[in-house]
Amino acid sequence: MSDQEFYYTIEKTSSAEVKDRGSKFIAYAYPIKNTEEFKVRLNEIKKEHSKASHHCFAYRLGLDGNNFRVSDGGEPSGTAGRPILGQIDSKNLVNVLVVVVRYFGGTLLGMPGLINAYKSATALVLQTVPSIQKPVEEEFRIEFDYTMMNEIMNIIKQNNCRIIQQDLQLFCSIRIAIPRRNAGVISQKIKDLKNVEIRKIN
């Protein structure tokens, strides 16, 4: 996956609900960038639904496919977190968290029933929010004399680069993200300018 040019994610949060034999399953989908955002979202849900019987979740972060986590939230092992992650993966989404809150309705659903309920709630919430394609980006730091500002800013604007951080004084430093598919060409353009240094971060 490491040389791909695009990835799919969601930009909006959404929620959906399914009911099964009295139990209520409320699914929330969130775009997240890191585990800190995940913790904040999970705590919000736990506060909002403090009386729920279970708070189950799954997320997948990053492009290498290795950064994911699942939790059955007290349900029998394998009945909640894995089915949730399975739905995220079936849409090839990354940087996405889905939390499914369950209010127990008095009737046991059994393992197949639980797997189906968590899977259905996740599938439903992911249908309500559009998935979007984003370019994979590479980060660079550019250091230059302020007299080169216009030329550098023109290259950044024309090539859909994203400014992450900038420190503009007599001697300037900008951190930018360049879409991977053009990173070589764009960084070379900047390198060819006089009194400009550019280096790749990470």
Keywords summarizing the entry:
38% strand, 202 residues, Ribosomal Protein S5, domain 2, 31% helix, alpha+beta, Alpha-Beta Plaits, 2 domains, elongated, four-stranded antiparallel β-sheet, five-stranded antiparallel β-sheet
Provide an overview of this structure.
- 31% of the residues lie in helices and 38% in strands.
- The chain has 202 residues and is α+β, with helices and mostly antiparallel strands.
- A hairpin with a 2-residue loop joins strand 2 and strand 3 (23-31).
Mean pLDDT: 95
The major sheet is characterized as: 5 strands, antiparallel
Compressed to H and E, one letter per element, the order equals: EEEHEEHEHEEHEEHE
Beta fraction: 35-45%
Number of helices: 5
Helical content (DSSP H or I, runs of 4+)? 25-40%
CATH evolutionary superfamily of the largest domain? Impact, N-terminal domain
Widest sheet: strand ordering? 2-3-6-4-5
Radius of gyration: 22 Å
Distance between the termini: 17 Å
Q: Which word captures the global form?
A: elongated
Class derived from helix and strand content: alpha+beta
Q: Summary?
A:
By secondary structure, this protein is of the alpha+beta class.
